[in-house]
Amino acid sequence: MFYLSDDKYESHIKAVLSECPEADTDEIKAAFVKYEEEFYIPPQDALRSIIRRFQGDKTPANSTKSSSQTTRQTKKVSSLSELSGTDRDIEIEVEVVSHNLREQTIRGEQKQIAFGLIEDNPWEEGGSRVRWEYKDWGPNTNITPGSVIRIEGASVNEYQGKMSLNINQGARVAVLREGTRPVHQPGEPIDIDSIPNDGYICVVGRVLSSRPDQIHRKDGSGSIDVVRGRIADETGTIGFLSWEPFSHEVGSLIKIDGAQVRTFRDTPELNFGRTTKIESFHDANFANIEKLNSHNMKTISQLTDGSRDVEAIVQITEWQKRSFTKDGEERFLWSGQIADPTGRCRMSAWEELPISDKDLPITVKLTGVRVRAWQGIPDITVDKAEQIEILESPPWDDDLDLQDHVVEVELTDLVNSSSRVGISTSGTVVSVREDSGIIMRCSECRRVLRDGECSIHGKVESQQDVRLRLVVDNGQVTASLLINKDAALKLINTTEEKMVSDIDSEGKMEFVQSLRDFLLGRELEVKGRTIVDEQGAMILADYAGLKPDDGAMLATEVRAQWGVN
Question: Hey, where are the domains in the chain?
Answer without folding.
Answer: 10-58, 75-177, 192-298, 304-390, 407-562
